[in-house]
Amino acid sequence: MSSPPPASRTPRHLAVIMDGNGRWAERRQRPRTLGHRAGAKAVQVCIEFCLANGVEALTLFAFSSENWNRPQEEVGALMKLFLRMLDSEVEEMHRRGMRVAFIGDRSGFPEPIRARMAQSEALTRDNRRMVLTIAAGYGGRWDITQACRQLAEDAAAGRVDPASIDESLVQSRLGLAGLPEPDLFIRTGGDVRISNFLLWQLAYTEMWFTDLLWPDLDTASLQAAFDAYAARERRFGLTSAQVSGGAA
Ligand code: FPP
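# farnesyl diphosphate complex -> structure
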């Protein structure tokens, strides 16, 4: 068994479910799509906070595999918003040393978005300051399933010995391969569940939930989440004495 990573007071990797855009708009008697536009501004707040705090990786759940079943008008508006954000923000992210990556099944996305995803990844691939991963068309079960399929194909072709398949090999085929596992998970919008996000990767992640709707996210609420994280003891299945360096 591998030993737990060293404790750190600031999360290296933050994973976020940005929930509540629709309700934020509905409370103002405005179309849900306006809530998503306001949500895009909160994404900037979150990115700035992470950069200022030296976070190495930020993973945002932008569009789940289930979101394709929303009303066509809302899906269309979200696609336009994604395209606009990719067009307007990626250059600036590149200038600031961020790497942009996408996880999820891209096959359902319109070709112009898929092309922008690939271009954004290619443009920023050598940047090291922070990795922004956008989960789009993503589901945790999809992720684990595609990893299994890859390994099965490799085993059938003789490239992988089935006896050598262990947790680290499975991990290496998942969407977030190569990144540290998320230390902190934040979900806004009041629901207390994972909703098929990073099912494998959240195994030992600290969870923080807030009733705040995503467009209302501000630096103070992010700081509250980071403060709560700093106060937690992460045991990774060990005893408190073991992780604090005391008696075994
Ligand atoms: C969940 O709120 C949010 C989404 C399905 C879309 C998230 C998209 C953005 C924040 C904008 C763009 C972001 C990026 C990274 C490109 P909801 O609609 O489920 O809200 P509700 O629970 O109140 O209905």
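# post-check
Residues 18-23, 36, 39-40, 43, 60, 62-63, 67, 81-82, 85, 134, 189, 214 surround farnesyl diphosphate (CB under 6 Å).
The chain is about 40% helix and 15% strand.
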